[in-house]
Amino acid sequence: MSEDIAFWLSYLTNGKHLTWYASFQFTIFAAVAGGILAVVFGLIGATLKNSRYLPLRLIGTFYSSIVRGVPDVLFFLFFPLAFEQAVEWIWASQVCTPEMIAAQSAAWPPCKAANWILTTPEYLILASVSLGLVYGAFATNVIHGAMRSVPHGQLEAARAYGMSTGQVLWRVQIRQMWVYALPGLSNVWMLIIKATSLLSLLQIADIVLWADRLGAPNFLPAVGLVHDDWRWRYYLVLFVFYILVTLISEKGFNALMRRAGRGMLNEGHH
Amino acid sequence: MDHFFAEVVYFAPAALFNIYFAAASIPLGFVFAVFLALGKDSRNPLLSRLSRGYIYAFRGSPLFIQFFMFYSLALSLNISVWKPMGISWFVLHPLFIGPLVLILNTSAYTAEIFHGALRAVPRGEIEAARAYGMSWPQQFRQVIWPNLIRLAWPAYTNEVVFLFHATAIVYFALPVIGQQKDLMITAKELVERDYNAFMHFSIAALYFLAVSLVVFFLFGLVYQRLMRHMPSRPRMRFAPKWLR
């Protein structure tokens, strides 16, 4: 019995497992940064959609409907690649000489000097930005609806006080819309949490990649077969982990909604 | 421009794989979801708890993890179960296990939609049906189901579009066999070859957008038919929402 416990303790705290536990930081970082950026892009998108000028309104509408019309994973792969290439293209226009371009045999980058090598931190930031961009489109929709739910009298009163358009938007409309936006934003947050499982597609050694490595049949010459294919057990752990995160987020958002709804007239909760 | 059209044609067979995954999982997912929704609403605590837990688990975890989990589970049972039965070529094939996981996943999302609609069925109509002496199957068939499907249809359309989008990650989790590649794998391979990310991903995106629009159109027609008794028929707009 005590030998069993000792075995499991040492198994679960070996170097690879510790790296696995540490890799949760990438997932958490991507979720939090992606969530914040999604709200920022959502605010920008909703403001554009509400704009008085047709071109801005079209940009806002185009952004929110096109991004929602294609799968998140497509955007998630496309955006970091496109950003990297754009940077390399600008860089190449500065540093590449015709001889260097002629010497380059690969299709990309234009010359060897303009090669931007991305590592985990860069990929993580790009992944967060693309999460923000994709789910910002969903947040745009939520925030746009919430901004229109702010009672009209409030905006009229603010205008009557002599506030400028910007002041009405920032001090009254955006301050009051959160209560209406929270249920929708909680949904967007759940989507972002689930999308963080895709980090390994951008070569980030995240929890999914480590689960795969740890679960693969493990053979040590000294000990023999440590375990056979245990991958499903590791994925089961992740499955449960994500359900727990969803559960906790749901509880958190419910508390937040109760708090934000204090003193508000709400017909939703009888 | 010619290059663009040539590539659109090149992507067509790949789009069929995405359409196959969605089309293969929609019918069974639909039926399973009806039972799950009824289970969640059931007065039997065990049945209700089980359906509730199932729906929560599959909506609360990423589809990507679900794919990995079920595929690795099937792999680990290979030597002891599938091989002796001689069906491992079938069970482990992405074209089988892909729709299987998608069915499990979409039925949870659809059941949540149906459950919401089930609770929104006007109570008065059910009471009237009971007053007429209808049995439960009669009530369900004549009163509850017609109401439920009309209430749920717009949200269900949305779910089908997102199910189609979800097929984009099938081959990131399951092995690609030979030339059986979907839109994402095709685009990714082409990008790895010539680094033209804008072109290849745009064409894949166009396919997803086009099929989404077709789904909205077809399901809109069904909705019009469902609502044919209404004086002014409500229309459906292309507006994927955040239900998933």
Automatic annotation (TrEMBL), chain A:
GO cellular component annotations of the record: plasma membrane
UniProt cross-references to SUPFAM superfamilies, sorted A to Z: MetI-like
Superkingdom per UniProt: Bacteria
Entry keyword Transmembrane: yes
PROSITE patterns: ABC_TM1
Membrane-topology descriptor: Multi-pass membrane protein
Subcellular location: Cell membrane
Segments passing through the bilayer: 20-46, 58-83, 123-143, 188-211, 231-249
Family annotation (InterPro entries): ABC_transp_permease_HisMQ, MetI-like, MetI-like_sf
Pfam family, one: BPD_transp_1
Principal localisation: membrane
GO BP terms, alphabetized: transmembrane transport
Keywords from the UniProt entry: Membrane, Transmembrane, Transmembrane helix, Transport
Boundaries of every ABC transmembrane type-1 domain copy: 24-253
Family of this protein: Belongs to the binding-protein-dependent transport system permease family.
Protein name listed in UniProt: ABC transporter permease
Organism taxonomic ancestry: Bacteria, Pseudomonadati, Pseudomonadota, Alphaproteobacteria, Hyphomicrobiales
TrEMBL record, chain B:
GO molecular function: transmembrane transporter activity
Family, per entry: Belongs to the binding-protein-dependent transport system permease family. HisMQ subfamily.
Start and end residues of each ABC transmembrane type-1 domain: 15-219
Transmembrane regions: 20-39, 60-81, 87-109, 160-178, 198-223
Alphabetically ordered keywords of this record: Cell inner membrane, Cell membrane, Membrane, Transmembrane, Transmembrane helix, Transport
Protein name, per record: Histidine ABC transporter permease
CDD domains: TM_PBP2 (cd06261)
GO cellular component annotations of the record: ATP-binding cassette (ABC) transporter complex
Entries under NCBIfam families matching the protein: HEQRo_perm_3TM (TIGR01726)
Lipid bilayer topology: Multi-pass membrane protein
One of the GO biological process terms: amino acid transport
Record's subcellular location: Cell inner membrane; Cell membrane
